[in-house]
Amino acid sequence: MLNALIRWSIQNRLVVLVAALAFTGVGLYLAFQLPIDVFPDLTAPTVTVITEVHNMAPEEVETLVTFPIETAVNGATGVRRVRSASGVGISIVWVEFDWGMDIYRARQIVSEKLQLTQSVLPADVPAPVMAPISSIMGEIMLIGVTGRPEQMMEIRTISDWTIRRRILSLAGVSQVIPLGGQVRQYQILVDPERMRHHKVTLDAVLKAAATTSQNSSGGFYVHGGKEFLIRGLGRVQNLDQLRNTPVEHHGTPSLRLQDVADVQIGPKVRRGVGSINGQEGVVLAVLKQPEADTLKLTQRIDEILDEIERGLPEGIDLERFIFRQSDFIELAVSNVLRALRDGAILVVVILFLFLLNFRTTFISITAIPLSLIFTVTLFWFFGATVNTMTLGGMAIAIGALVDDAIIDVENVFRRLRQNLKRRPEDRKPSDQVIFEASSEVRYPIMFATFIVIVVFIPLFALTGLEGRMLRPLGISYIVSIFGSLVVALTVTPALCSYLLPSSKAVHREKESWMVRKLRDWYAPLLRFSLAKPLPVLVLAGLLLVVSLIAVPFMGRTFLPEFNEGTLTIAMVSLPGTSLEESDRLGGITEEILLSNEEVLSTARRTGRAELDEHAQEVNGAEIDVRFQLKQRDREEFLSSLRQQLTIVPGTHFSIGQPISHRIDHMLSGTRAAVAVKLFGPDLLTMRSLARQIRDVMNEIPGVVDLQVEPQTHVPQLQVRFDREAIAAQGLSMYEVSQIVDVGLNGEVTGQILEEQRAWDLQVRLLEEYRTDPDAIGRVRVESPAGRSVPLMEVAEIVVDSGPNRIS
Q1: Eight-class DSSP state of 552
Q2: DSSP structure class, residue 553
Q3: Cα-based distances in Å from 181 to 89, 283, 570
Q4: How far is CA 236 from the centre of its chain?
Q5: 274 and 621 Cβ atoms separated by less than 8 Å
Q6: What would the mean pLDDT of 289-297 be, rounded to a whole number?
């Protein structure tokens, strides 16, 4: 069969060469259509389940919400790991499935399991929702929006309703998460004193706010052959209409909201702050969907940002180069392409030195582009991506791609020279000589190729993240080598029949100068090795032993340390630190960073965004630092940063890089290269053991940025209800708890529409009643019967502590 293939290629050499040229053109076109990424998709299919519970502490969230969800999904088909974080008012559960599981099937399984939890979750807990499809490696871009301090609400409005919506309209974008600025909100700030004066309950105010902005439909009526839609228009159009909303007062709507509350437009209570280069603003994180082309998607986002930037109000600016994954991808791909280029040049130079003939060199190196194009075409056919691992496999294969072609060319060259030495009447036709020469080496070529392929097969036995990382490298190497075999059996004989019979080098008696010199050097060494084999074998054995002894002393790591050009600095202050204090400390940190000449820009995200999938508290911040090394090397720069950051009081810093951090997070669930986890029912015992482990690990050379996850007790202001006092005052538990839940925390009762934008309408107490325990104690509880008592008479208000987060 192989002989027939070789014979056909020689006889139809024109067809073969035209087909090779056409294949090259198609392959180059397809190469530009392949999506490019930094790594293959490393994230196991993961479904994130988020439950917002605004009125629960972490221990309640863990018991009442997180644990039932974890229990439901733990036994689901294909689930390999379940992690969770329970914070103040939020439960986040990450459900990780086996590699290879279809993400849509995984979401269907989780959706079905969540249906089972509805019956066991508390009645006042909203239904758990699944986050959009994305991976932990999917954060491809950070965009900053800055302006003057008085423009913070306008900046957030533009970020939410213009920038975010435009970017979300792009195919391939999974989520856009804005953080910072001031979210516009219609607010009804209730005054307990005015409520008491007018004998109005909080329930009446809530009812008025909930029913004030709604339209109604009266069906249709027909007149004069026309059909008219009947509509009741009651939606609030402005603040005056909201202020004049009637409040039920002993069954008579004679009061207005403005009589018992301050009605205004104000900023929503926030749990996160954004900063760009030390200036307050909004930071938008753009997440892509799996398998989306990062480079093309980033280009489309830039085009949209160009359009938006032209229409921004004066004083508002966009910063789009805070962090861009595309920059690292382009750098990584260009480095690998450079290695491919340099490898190909070296192969060409060495081939020419050995063969000393342009034609034989050209025939041999033809195998390189054709084999690589063969690989790229198969990638396109099977929907694979081009990344540093697949390109790395091709770079490793460069030197081997010409092996099969060289063996064939060298044998054809030798047989043609021998044929010319025969008498004219005994000489065979050139095509027959080429066919016989190629047939002689067909099996050695094939066996040698398969042996090389077998060496890489163990890569496919790797599991988990290692398998996902290295398998594409093995695939690209094997496909490239197999492509070189196909080229050697078809294109190489065809080119030989075209170029070699008329070559002047075939008529020369001598071999190339390089080959003759090497033969002169090698002959004495070969004679010595054959005459005295024992010393040679002993020396080889000693070198083997020395190399094996050296292996345990060599450094080992899964991946080399990258130089991404961007740092990710995790900043954590003491649990219980307020958002304002964390923002102040973050500002000091940014000033320190920007004082270094290598630092080009910073972007800080303190606390948690409204749409974020992480339960980060306000005492935590993440700072993305874009830098460019100048006089100092990387180690000096990082060492200097660590030293400078020690002056920030009450904080701990962990310095890493965006992609490296995310890979560590995939391995251990935390952004650290090594993570030690403790499991158990007693938080206090585990925290004590964690500190002991930290002290031991701190003595290990090379350990930096060591910290215990900041799970600890934080201050709480607890309002402990006195049931006997509540009953004695003729009140109900609902009326008292409503003051704490709605009055202090606030409740969204509806939305106010402005053109195509919807703003929350929130009811809560005036700020002066939420400032300290005494003020809270003076808040009066109104009953429908007209009784009014201070909260301090029916509840004990004490300062205590509780866990800030439970993982």
Answers
A1: G
A2: G
A3: 21, 9, 21
A4: 41
A5: no
A6: 84
Question: Per residue in 201-227, pLDDT tens?
Answer: 888 888 888 888 887 888 888 887 888
Distance from C-alpha of 91 to C-alpha of 95, rounded to nearest angstrom = 13
Q: How many residues does the chain have?
A: 807
CB atoms near residue 807 (< 10 Å):
18
- Calpha distance 56→130 (Å, rounded): 20
| Nearest alpha-carbon partner for 467 in 37, 34, 41 | 41
* pLDDT of amino acid 508: 67
User: Of 770, 805, 792, which is closest to residue 719 (Cα–Cα)?
Assistant: 792
Q: Give the HSE-up count for residue 751: Cα atoms under 13 Å, Cβ half-sphere.
A: 7
How many CA within 13 A on the CB side of residue 38?
22
Q: What is the pLDDT of residue 770?
A: 77
> Distance between CA atoms of 574 and 500, rounded to whole angstroms?
78
Which of 571, 576, 601 has its CA nearest to residue 586?
A: 571
- Nearest to residue 141, comparing CAs of 321, 387, 328? 321
pLDDT band at 506 (very low <50, low <70, confident <90, very high): low
- The predicted structure's pLDDT at residue 590: 92
Tokens of 232: 């009741």
Sign of CA dihedral 596, 598, 601, 603: negative
Report the candidate in 392, 338, 333, 363 with the shortest Cα–Cα distance to residue 484: 363
Residue 787 CB-half CA count within 13 A: 16
CA distances from 694 to 124, 346, 412, 700, 706 (A): 40, 50, 68, 10, 7
Output the CA torsion 582→584→586→590 (10° steps).
180
pLDDT tens profile 437-488: 888 888 888 888 888 888 888 888 887 777 777 888 888 889 888 888 888 8
Closest CA relative to residue 148, chosen from 322, 314, 265, 274 = 314
CA–CA gap between residue 45 and residue 80 (Å, rounded): 10
Three-class DSSP labels, 450-472: HHHHHHHHHHHHCCHHHHHHHHH
d(CA 539, CA 529): 11
Tokens 């033969």 belong to residue: 519
Tell me whether residue 369 is exposed, middle or buried, using C-beta atoms within 10 angstroms of its C-beta: 0 to 12, 13 to 18, 19 or more. Answer: middle
Which residues, including other chains, have CB under 8 Å from residue 757's CB and lie 6 or more apart? 157, 161
Q: Give the pair of three-digit tokens for residue 584.
A: 């102040």
DSSP assignment, residue 190?
E
Tokens, residue 373:
């194009």
- For residue 366 the two structure tokens come to 């033809």
- Is the pLDDT reported for residue 699 higher than 80? yes
> From residue 574, how far is each of 269, 383, 582, 804 by CA, in Å?
21, 48, 9, 11
- The model carries a pTM of 0.78
Residue 420, token pair as written in the block? 């010319």
CB 656 within 8 A of CB 562: no
